[in-house]
Amino acid sequence: MKRKRLNRVVSLLAGICLLLALLPPAALAEDAVILPDGLDLTGVTQDTVYRTADGLGTAEWDFDELTLTLKGAGEITGENTNGVSLPGGTIIVAAGADWTVTGGELLSGVFSSGMLTIAVEARGRLTAAAGDGASLYSGIRVEGGIKLENQGEIFALGGKTNGAYSGAGIRVYDPGLTVSGTGVLRCEGNHGITAMATGSGGPGSITIEAGVVWALGTGSEWGKGIDANGGNVTVAAGADVTGIGAYSGIYGNLSGEGADNAVSISAAGDLTDQSGGLALQDVAVPTFYADVGGGTALWEPCTGENSEQNPHTLTLTKVAIDNSGGHGIELPQGYSRLVLSGENKVAGQDYGIYAADHTGSAGGSRLEIRGDGSLTAQGGGEAVHACRNSYFESADEQSQSVLLYGLGGKVLTAEAGADAAGAVGLDGTAVVDDGTARLPGGMPYFHMAYVAPGADAHVLTVRNGTGGGVYRAGDTVKLASALQTGDFQCWSDVSTGGLLAGVTFVNGTSARSEAVEFEMPARRLLLQAMDRGYTPPNTGGSSGPRTYTVAYKGNFEGAPSDVRDSGYRAGAEVTAKPASTFAAPAGKAFAGWAESADGKAVYQAGDKFKMPAKTLNLYAVWQDTAPALNKTDHIAYIQGYADGTVRPMGDITREEAAMLFYRLLDEPTRARYETDQHEYPDVAAGRWSNTAIATLTNADILRGYEDGAFRPEGRITRAEFAAVAVRFGADAYGGDDLFLDIAPHWARNEINRAADKGWLRGDGDGRFRPDDPITRAEAVALVNRMLERAPETAADLLDGMKTFTDNADPAKWYHLDLQEAANGHDYTRKADNMHEIWTSLH
């Protein structure tokens, strides 16, 4: 697949423009209108762009398509109006956007008089809330049917009267409600969701095709979670549906392949504020707590034998508990399961979460934590206490065991007492060396089990050594002794009281070897390294908190000694060392730090990460000389459209961005990395952008999403483009953030590096708007800065160049950049060695 550079660059697909750049100061505000109090679009008959007062969000109304697109972050609040009123049409919440829409008193958050579609893209969030006192008006009220195409999160909240819900989360009339997509829909009100026939108030229709639906109906004894008014509630296979109501969880004719798995709970619910703690040890009936510090809790005590198949279950959804007089949550003895949704915080003067001791039993109480939410647990004594005497018979170990199922995202953060600086964060991806996370002071805290629910997995507890954790039957386990004094004697199986036996050893090792490899049996094991004079290891005490080391390794033949960075407590913030830590081998360039000698880079120089409770080895990753762009030949890398326009304010897709940079690769880079092979399931081999996407992925310039997809037709964001740009070479940056709105963003480091290089500019008030899509003009400006292509005035250009009807005004900030990108030319540099003068056209 070798072709001559210029021919390929100019010939590959007309009409393609770019990727991310940065917005010049006046570009957004040029035609935008400040959002009013309440956005009534029923009488707006022309396209209009609204922006928030802080400039962080835009609401773009397309009258021809009756589409409102919400980007960035913002709030719309009606005083004497609905939050947003439409005649029907579509509301799009862009990827990563976060909007709250609230109606005035007795009015709805979102109101539509006709058929409405709400499409929430990945990582997007829409919160729609009715004003207080709204008995008929709702978080979302639609009089002509509604479709929710949800890949993110939708929260619909009814209004309240005297503190209790009196309006529905969603109220819809014929032809009813349809829910699709993989996102989460949460509805709360006197009814969570209610659907009925127009006019007569007869039976309605609700169809849930996919996703997670959580509907709560409280506020009166007649509250229903999901209410079809006697009509049909159809649940497809794979949909996750829970309805909870004072009168009925799901009220209607329940059908569909997923009907048997839909959860319907009738529970009057406790509407009092439970933020001071949940004492559940004596609550023997299912109870729904509607106000737990702003969140909800559902308690389902087991019936019959308490076991793994039938545990007590407590579901927490965005709760905030702080009990200054005892435990945050107190569970009964036995087996309890905690299910997390959203961000949850639980604190207590004694324990954050306390699972009662099973007095007189060797089994103790067991706590299992599941879900895709997060939990911060804090206690004056311990964050979480779930006594497992069968794990720790020795009183001086003072340890508890918690079984964690990590389903993605942060599962638990443990805070010792009030010392939040000593938090230990677990991301659900790995097991600490000895299976134990440690709080400040080195005290063993809990054993981890990061495995998928239902897997044939078993707990291995290791004393006086490393290697404990949770393993599937047949997994290879590696143990090593960590005795403090005396001579190693053997590995003892405490669960059977004798020499380690009943397991299959690997590589000829034996129980009398200090380092052991064996295949995990289908049972729990408790192993101990034995010697004749063992004394327990120092657990912190007067010697101070335990600290850990990052060991940087050159990872090439003849590399110098490791560079060690010591003194970090677990959970401390660490900054990855720069590329200059090791001199690059001949013909190689530094590509980042990996966690194994043959692994892929997971940290770039300057990246910040949390220190685990163990020594962390980071290996330098070397690749052939870094990918580069052609900065010598000023080729045309964009083309206009057939109608003579170039559309400066148009968006750019991810595959258009791939093609743009592919065109601009220099020949050595193209020769080294060009391929048409990749692993993206959504990019077909025959797609026009396939080679560009595969080549830039092979060079580690482009990357897909966590689910493995590339999403070629998705609009590329400003943050995504900043990340692509710096992979072509940008120095590490260690200063303060250069923009006000990037601190929590995943691309914070990349944005700072690109801005420090001079490629990016802000929007005039210090913000970057990382999740907004990039415009064509912005992308061209950024790429020209990367390539040092910079005419100074219109006089530096040439007659006869290609021009565009929508780029005819030399006063526009983007005029010179677009002309530079659309016309191939020879040039000379001016005396300042920065700007150029064109000498001939290609």
3D structure, described in words:
The protein is mainly beta and 842 residues long. 9% of the residues lie in helices and 35% in strands. The chain has eight helices and 60 strands. A hairpin with a 5-residue loop joins β3 and β4 (57-62). α5 packs across α6 and α7 (776-787) packs across α8. The protein is flat and about 85 Å long. The protein starts with a helix and ends with a strand.
In a nutshell, what does this entry contain?
The protein is mainly beta and 842 residues long.
How do the strands and helices of this protein lay out in sequence?
Blueprint: H1 5-11, E1 33-34, E2 39-40, E3 48-51, E4 57-62, E5 67-77, E6 84-86, E7 89-93, E8 98-102, E9 110-112, E10 116-120, E11 125-129, E12 140-142, E13 146-150, E14 153-157, E15 160-161, E16 164-165, E17 170-173, E18 177-180, E19 184-189, E20 191-196, E21 205-208, E22 212-217, E23 224-235, E24 240-245, E25 248-255, E26 263-266, E27 278-279, E28 287-292, E29 295-300, E30 312-317, E31 320-323, E32 329-331, E33 335-341, E34 343-348, E35 351-355, E36 366-371, E37 374-379, E38 382-386, E39 403-404, E40 412-416, E41 419-426, E42 436-438, E43 444-447, E44 457-463, E45 465-466, E46 469-472, E47 476-481, E48 488-493, E49 498-499, E50 504-505, E51 515-519, E52 525-531, E53 548-553, E54 563-568, E55 573-575, E56 588-594, E57 608-610, E58 616-624, H2 654-664, H3 667-673, H4 690-698, H5 718-726, H6 748-756, H7 776-787, H8 815-822, E59 825-829, E60 836-841
Parallel strand pairs: 1-3, 2-6, 5-7, 5-8, 6-9, 7-10, 8-11, 9-12, 10-13, 11-14, 12-17, 13-18, 14-19, 17-20, 18-21, 19-22, 20-23, 21-23, 22-24, 23-25, 24-26, 27-32, 30-33, 31-34, 32-35, 33-36, 34-37, 35-38, 36-39, 37-40, 44-52, 53-58
Antiparallel strand pairs: 3-4, 4-5, 15-16, 28-29, 29-30, 40-41, 42-43, 44-46, 45-47, 47-51, 48-49, 48-52, 50-51, 53-54, 55-57, 56-58, 59-60
Helix pairs in contact: 2-4, 5-6, 7-8
